[in-house]
Amino acid sequence: MDAVLRGMKLSKLVAEEGFDPVEQLLEAAAADSVSPGICVNPGCSYTCEIEPDQDRGWCEACDTPTVRSALILAGLL
What is the rounded distance in angstroms from the CA atom of residue 19 to the CA atom of residue 73? Predict the structure, then answer.
């Protein structure tokens, strides 16, 4: 996945979850057993709670394994 799309999806996830800046979201995700995740398909912004190391979570909006955790999008895992 290209860095621009990854950054855009991470920014959207931060806004959806109500965190500012992104570090707050990443700290919360790293300290919990679940992490916010977002579908990385262009045109889809489905979000859900997933495992912190998830890089192929199921998107219920577009029926594809394209949900990534915030920690994956940030390159921390």
Answer: 15
The predicted-structure confidence for 15-28, as pLDDT tens digits, reads as follows: 888 888 888 888 88
Render pLDDT for 26-64 as a digit per residue (tens, 0 to 9).
Answer: 888 888 788 899 999 988 999 999 999 999 999 999 999
Beta-strand pair 35-39/47-50: antiparallel
The ranges assigned to domains in the chain are: 3-73
Q: Measured between alpha carbons, how far is residue 67 from residues 16, 33 in Å?
A: 15, 17
Distance between CA 51 and CA 3 in Å, rounded? 22
